[in-house]
Design a protein that fits this description.
- It is elongated, with a radius of gyration of 21 Å.
- The chain is built from nine helices and 16 strands.
- Helix 6 links the parallel strand 9 and strand 10.
- By secondary structure, it is an alpha/beta fold.
- The longest helix has 19 residues.
- Helices cover 32% and strands 24% of the residues.
- The chain has two domains: 177 residues, Rossmann fold (3-Layer(aba) Sandwich), CATH 3.40.50; 131 residues, Rossmann fold (3-Layer(aba) Sandwich).
- The strands form four sheets. It has a six-stranded parallel β-sheet with strand order 2-1-5-6-7-8, with helices on both faces.
- Bound molecules: ribose-5-phosphate (R5P).
Length: 315
């Protein structure tokens, strides 16, 4: 198998390739002056794309990532089906179709937040993007998606993978927490898995979101006096959820508070805000960010193997 990437996931694609000892190739990506994207499979990569099934690692965040992912899938499918026709008449114009074998690994599935229709007339964005991408690949691997249910019913199989095992080991080595906190009910499964893996206490908060920037937590007694606590969530965006949870922990005597997540979006000065509330911020490499200290390669590799198995693809 061959690992491919465009502009937004190269470091993680390399981590995946290293984890599996597979080849990695970068596709050419550029922007036209009007900001539209251009992608091309370099001539020297065409044989690699045709010789074995491929895993394209690409994020659907920010929006430009969706278009880039679609363009890369289009080019990969053309090359694998042998449609090489080009206006300059360079090389063979047609080749044998090498068959299915295009896997799409999406470390951070952008638009996963709108996974329901809260008000009439809204688009269920996660489903819309999922349908678009699944029309151009043979299977999808998604990494710590907020709500897996939203990708149910796509036309291709989806493997859900998680970086919680690696996140747990990182916290154990670097932070040695006594207590793991889930900042809301949605993160209970992930955070409790981390607590079990490293054998420490666990609890959760109940959160109400007022708007994108305002959240409140229900008061709760937590047994954190004198303890080192790590708050574990699937994603950190504005940092509001973590800052409020850190406040609750400090007021109950926690001596050290860390924030750990799969997806470090860190929007609008989130890191500057977070460092006023927590002693450390730890994220996986699903998105390039200044705190991507946990490799997402092993988690993606587990997803790739699961999908290969389901599709009957062999190495
Ligand atoms: C929501 O349920 C998610 O799990 C995160 O807690 C949330 O997206 C974090 O957002 P923010 O950092 O803006 O509070």
């Amino acid at each position: 198998m061959v690992v491919l990437s465009g502009s937004n996931s190269k470091p993680l694609a390399k981590q995946l390739a290293e984890t599996l000892n597979w080849e990695h190739h970068s596709l050419e990506t550029r922007r036209f002056p009007d900001t539209e994207g251009y992608i091309r499979i370099p001539s020297e990569v065409i044989d690699a794309v045709r010789k074995e099934p491929v895993v394209l690692v690409s994020n659907t965040f920010p929006d430009s990532g969706i278009v880039e992912t679609l363009l890369m899938l289009e080019a990969i499918n053309d090359v694998r089906t042998g449609n090489m026709e080009n206006l300059k008449n360079i090389g063979p114009q047609e080749l044998e179709n090498v068959g299915p074998g295009v896997l799409l690994a999406i470390p951070y599935f952008g638009y996963s937040r709108q996974d329901k229709r809260f008000n009439p007339g809204e688009a269920i964005s996660a489903k819309a993007i999922g349908n678009l991408l699944s029309s151009r690949c043979d299977g999808i691997i998604v990494f710590d998606i907020h709500e897996p249910k939203v990708l149910a019913g796509l036309s291709v199989p989806v493997a859900f993978t998680s970086a919680m095992p690696e996140l747990a080991l990182h916290l154990q080595k670097e932070v040695q927490p006594d207590f793991i906190l889930s900042p809301d009910k949605g993160a209970i499964a992930r955070a409790s898995e981390v607590a079990e893996t490293i054998d420490c206490q666990f609890s959760y908060l109940e959160k109400t979101r007022i708007d994108a920037h305002t959240i409140i937590h229900k008061a709760k007694d937590l047994d954190v006096d004198g303890k080192i606590v790590a708050i574990v969530d699937d994603m950190i965006a504005t940092g509001g959820t973590i800052c409020r949870a850190a406040d609750a922990l400090r007021s109950q005597g926690a001596v050290e508070v860390h924030a750990a997540c799969s997806h470090g979006l860190f929007t609008g000065g989130a890191i500057a805000r977070l460092v006023r509330y927590v002693d450390g911020v730890h994220s996986t490499s699903s998105l390039p960010n200044p705190r991507d200290v946990i490799s997402g390669g092993p988690a993606l590799a587990r997803g790739v193997f699961e999908l290969m198995d389901r599709l009957g693809l062999e190495l």
